[in-house]
Amino acid sequence: MAWSDLFAGIAFYLIIEGLFPFINPNAWRRGLSVMAQFEDQQLRNFGLGVVIAGLTLLYFVRG
Length: 63
Known about the structure:
Number of domains: 1
Strand content: under 5%
Number of strands: 0
Helix content: over 70%
Largest sheet: none
């Protein structure tokens, strides 16, 4: 993997993360307030699920 691939991935992440509050700030704010109510274990499970989904997608895209 080249450094340019890593930086491209980070750039795409920042673009996608910035789209949500740009397009619908109220829904984004409500979503954050809901997540703030989660217990630590729920947040860990959610984070683990996102990591697994990302790794699975990366595996299929990059083979």
